[in-house]
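[step 3/7] fold_predict: job queued, chain A
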Amino acid sequence: MHWSPCGTYNVNYTKDMAIFRTKSHWISLTLFLVVLFTLPLYCSRYYLTLLSTIGITIIAVQGLSILTGYTGQISIGQAAFVGTGAYISVFFIQHYEFPFFFSLLLAGVGSGLIGIFFGLPALRIKGFYLAMSTLAAQLILGWLFLHMEGFTGGTEGLHVEHATIFGIVIDTPQRKYWLIMFFVTLTVYIVKNMMRTRVGRALVAIRDNDLAAEVMGIDVMRYKLLAFFLSCFFAGIAGAIYAHYIGFINPVQFTMQSSIIYLGMLIVGGMGSVLGVIFGVTFMILFEEFAYAISPSLTMMFPSFGAQFFSAISLSFYALVIIIFLIFQPRGLNHLWNILKRRYRLYPFSH
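[step 4/7] structure written:
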């Protein structure tokens, strides 16, 4: 076989459908995982915190990708389901002393079942009207977070104890990072493979044309509700992990602004792509950090505007990035990555 990328070819369907098809793919994956899980050994606390935030957000946005990116059902309430998972997990641990993994599962299932309830309108409506339905979910759940004080602590919030796994207390940034990255890796693996199954193909068919999908024998009602369940399930998992990572939860952490930001990350990364979610979340969070970092310098350069102006303008930068991607790169960062891969695979040919 020739050393060049264009010399790589497949001789059976099993190899052609594999995610990692060559030795170089497997070597790259192994090296990446080794670096990913050894970072706490030589990384500062700041970078571990940043990567942990990216990891939790990836889990939540992967769920949103199943619903919006693959099934075509617009949702503006993902943050509310992240909050639901956080409160459910904390409730069962604090009141019933459930193990962490069990409370985590209950958080995912509980959020998923609530997601099915709010997903019922999707059986009759779509597009803008469905977006308003999910917005209602965000507002209703947000109101419950504030007023169900016995369950959520209301405006005072809840203090969350460190997670304990097999007698090991997850109380250091390193241990929290390893826990988060374990669930990120598991989530990416599950979603990537699920989208290659009959379920994933049915969801994509519904996104492309739900009427044609129904004619082909796909139970559109069932799969739409399944998409809502899966989306909210992963949101609940992300919420439970977030609660134990931060150590404190409050309704302010699960606002409509967060839901819109999740959707923006999906747009920037690329709809209908597992890798696009990772690109989008990483890019937007790093961009946000960059905006916060340059705010003091801008304040010194333009003192007449005041510090509050440049602190708030980071959100404007955020919105500007989303608009730029919608206009000039609507397929997101994942499309650029695919172009790069195709050029590498076709080397040394020009096209």
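[step 5/7] annotate
Residues 231 and 300 are 44 Å apart (CA to CA).
The domain at 43-346 is CATH 1.10.3470 (ABC transporter involved in vitamin B12 uptake, BtuC).
exit 0
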